Amino acid sequence: MDDIDRRLDTITRHPFRARFHLRGRERAMAEVRGPVTIRTHARELIAERLARAQPYKDGRQTPYRGHPVFVAQHATATCCRTCLQRWHHIPKGPELSVGEQAYVVDVICRWIAREFEPPGA
């Protein structure tokens, strides 16, 4: 997790990424459903929307709201293949491997967990 935390610290300093936080409905959903269910949703959403070699509407396939995973994807630069390449050094062309998909899910879930930590923790 140290690598992921360091990467998240870098990404969340970017002004665009820093403005994303879990609030309202998305925060409540993450609390009620819990980390196991949210991780399952993240796995499914990444496999469906991001893992293909040429994702449908790449760069515009991730909504900004509606699910905590969507908010986390924008906050962590895992929202499209271009951001994955730029921020996480995962090449844009080939399909995401099982390991790459697991990494993306770990990043998303770690960011969500950090949203529930007390400030300064």
Account of the protein in words:
With 121 residues, the protein is an all-alpha fold. It has one domain. The protein is built from six helices and no strands. It is globular and about 40 Å long. The mean pLDDT is 93.
Fold topology:
Elements: H1 2-11, H2 15-18, H3 24-49, H4 68-76, H5 81-88, H6 98-115
Helix pairs in contact: 3-6, 4-6
Keywords for this entry:
mainly alpha, 62% helix
Number of helices: 6
What structural category do the secondary elements indicate? mainly alpha
Instruction: Give the low-pLDDT segments.
Output: none
Order of helices and strands: HHHHHH
Terminal-residue CA separation? 15 Å
Give the beta-strand count.
0
Strand content: under 5%
Largest sheet: none
Tally of domains? 1
Percent helix, as a range, is: 55-70%
The overall average pLDDT, rounded, is 93
From the alpha carbons, calculate the radius of gyration and give it in angstroms: 13 Å
Shape category: globular
In brief, what are we looking at here?
The chain is mostly helical and 121 residues long. It has helices at residues 2-11, 15-18, 24-49, 68-76, 81-88, 98-115.
